[in-house]
Amino acid sequence: MERAFKILVVDDEPDLEPLMLQRMRRSIRRGQYQFVFAGNGVQALERLREDEEIDMVLSDINMPEMDGLTLLQQIPKVDPNIRSVIISAYGDMKNIRTAMNRGAFDFVTKPLDFNDLRVTIDRTVKHLLEWRGALSARDRLVALQNELDMASKMQQSILPTVFPEGVGYQVSGSMEPARSVGGDFYDVLQLSNDRIGLAVADVSDKGVPAALFMMSSRTLLKGSAIGCEKPGDALHEVNDLLNEDNETAMFVTMVYGVYDPANGKLTYANGGHNSPLLVRADGSSELLPLTGGVALGLVPDLEYHQETTTLAPGEFVIFYTDGVTEAMNEAEEEFGVERLQNIFAESPPDNAQGVNKAILETVNKFAGNASQSDDITCLTLQRGKMRS
Amino acid sequence: MSISTERANGALIAKAEGRVDGANAREFQDDLEAVIGPADKLVLLDLENLSYISSAGLRVILLVARTLQKQKATLAVCSLSSSIREVFEISGFDKIIPVHDSREDAMAKLGG
Fold first, then answer.
1. Rounded average pLDDT over B17-45
2. Cα separations (Å) of B23 from A329, A330, B29, B68?
3. Which residues of A touch B58 (CB under 8 A)?
4. What DSSP character marks residue A112?
C-alpha cells in the first residue's frame, strides 16, 4: 500500500486518542498507519462519508447515540470494502459473536494490548491488500471479456449472410467462431459482367487488434477487387496497403478468386492460405495448386501469381481456413486434408450449403470434447448442374 | 513449448520444442527475446522438435526477425519437420525467412 493505512478509531473515551497516538507513534512516523477519531457511531459514519481513504474502523461497543454493533451494520452501506475490528470487554463472548455475525473482521479486548492491536491491524492490512488484488483482477477479467465480445461482434458483423443468386452457380459461406475470438472472414463480391469475387482469409492473431486488422483487410480487398481485373493484382495492392503502416507484424493469409459464370472459369491468387479444394460431382477431389504467394502484410512489393481452373457443371470449389484442417481431437490428431476429402468421397455433395454443413458437422464430430481453438470457416462455390 | 540454447561458431542456436499456438505465442516471444543478446549476429532457430506452429507463432518469428534486422543480425530456421515445412511453404514464410535443411547446412551457407 503506497499511502499510510488509514484507521478510524471510534470510542467515547477521550483518553484513547492521545494514548493511541503515543503508543503507535513509530508506525505513524514510518508512514505505516494514520489515525482519525470519532466519539460515537453517528460521528463515525459522518467521517466515513467525508473521507474515502479510510481503510479500517476500530470501534468500541458501548457508546452514546449509536453503539458499535449498530455502526457495524451501517458501514457496508457507506463502503463494503472497509474492514471493522471491534474493541470488546474481555470475555464478552455474546457481543463478540454478535459483532462477528454483523461482519466484523476481528476483535481486540480491553484493556488494549497495543502489541496485539498492531498484529491485528497488520493482519487486516494484509487481508485488504489481497481483497483489492482480487477485485482488480476481476475488473480486468470483465474488461477483457468485454473486449473479446466486441471483437466477436465486429467479426460477425462483416460477414455476408445473403449470397448472390446468379444464373448457373450457387455460393454459400459459413463461419463457426472459436470461443477465443479468431480473425477469419469470408466475403462475396459482385463484380462487373456478372462475375463474382470470392475470398476467405485468416488473420494471424486474436482479439480486438486482430479484429481491426481483419476489418481493414476486408475493406482493402473490396476496394482493390473492384479496381483490379486480376485477382493477383488485387492481392498485390492489398499487400502493399497493409504494409504501409504495420508495426504489429500482424498478417493475413487470403485466397481470392474471380468466378465467371459464363464459362465456369475460376481465376484465383493465393496469399499464404490453404489451397482451395475442388470437388467433382462424383465426390472425388483435389487441392488446387498453390500460386506461391506470401501472406499479406509481411513484405511490400510482392508479385502474386494466379491460376485458372474451369469448373465442370455440378463441381464445387471450397475455400476454407486452417480451423478446418488443423482442428484437433482429444488425442491431439489433426483433422487434415484427407479427412476433408473423405467427407465427399463417402457422400458426394449436392449443394454449396450442404458442403459447409457437412464439413462443420464432421469436424465437430471428429473434435469430440476437444475445445475448438480456431474459427472454422468455409466458402463454397458450385457451378450449376445444368448448363445455363 | 520450451527453448534450449547453445552457441557454436559465433551463432546462437535456439532449439524450440513442442507446440506454439495462440495460447502460448506470447510466451514463445518472451522466451526468444530473453535468450537473444544484443551482440548476437546470427540466430538459428532449430525447429526439429517443433510439433505444431500456428499463424500466431509465425508472427512471433517475424517479430524476432525484424528486431534482429534492426541490430543488423540474421534469423534463419533449420531442420523443419515435413508438417512445419508445409506451414512455411503455404504461408510463404519460406520466402521471407531463410530455411535450411540442417544446422550444418545453415552454418555452411550463413558462414557462422
1. 92
2. 17, 17, 12, 24
3. 204, 251, 295
4. P
**Residue A25 belongs to domain with CATH number:** 3.40.50.2300
Q: Under a CB-based contact definition with an 8 Å cutoff, are residues B97 and B61 in contact?
A: yes
- Say how many domains are in chain A: 2
Amino acid identity of residue A154, one-letter, is M
Out of B22, B52, B92, closest to residue A295 by CB? B92
- Of the pLDDT bands very low, low, confident and very high (cuts 50, 70, 90), residue A162 is confident
Contacts with A292 from chain B: Cβ below 8 Å: 92
Tens-digit pLDDT profile for residues A108-156? 888 889 988 998 999 898 888 888 888 888 888 777 777 777 777 777 7
pLDDT(A180) > 70:
no
Return residues 101-160 of A near B (CB < 8 Å): none
**Is there a single domain that holds both residue A181 and residue A93?**
no
Do A200 and A255 sit in the same domain of this protein?
yes
Measured CA to CA, the distance from residue A354 to residue A246 in angstroms comes to 38
- The answer to the question of residue A21 being in a domain is yes
Give the closest-approach CA distance of A287 to chain B in angstroms. Answer: 12
Query: Do residue B21 and residue A373 have CB atoms under 8 angstroms apart?
Result: yes
Compute CA distances A80 → A55, A83, A161, A265, B70, whole Å: 11, 8, 48, 69, 52
CATH code, domain carrying A189: 3.60.40.10
Judging contacts by C-beta atoms under 8 Å, the chain B residues touching residue A374 are 22, 54
Q: What is the pLDDT of residues A232-278, one digit of tens each?
A: 999 999 999 898 877 778 899 999 999 999 999 999 999 999 999 99
pLDDT greater than 50 at residue A369: yes
The count of structural domains within chain B is 1
Q: Is the pLDDT of residue A388 over 50?
A: no
Say whether both A370 and A239 belong to one domain.
yes
Interface of B with A in 36-65 (CB under 8 A): 52, 54-56, 58-59, 62-63
pLDDT of residue A35: 95
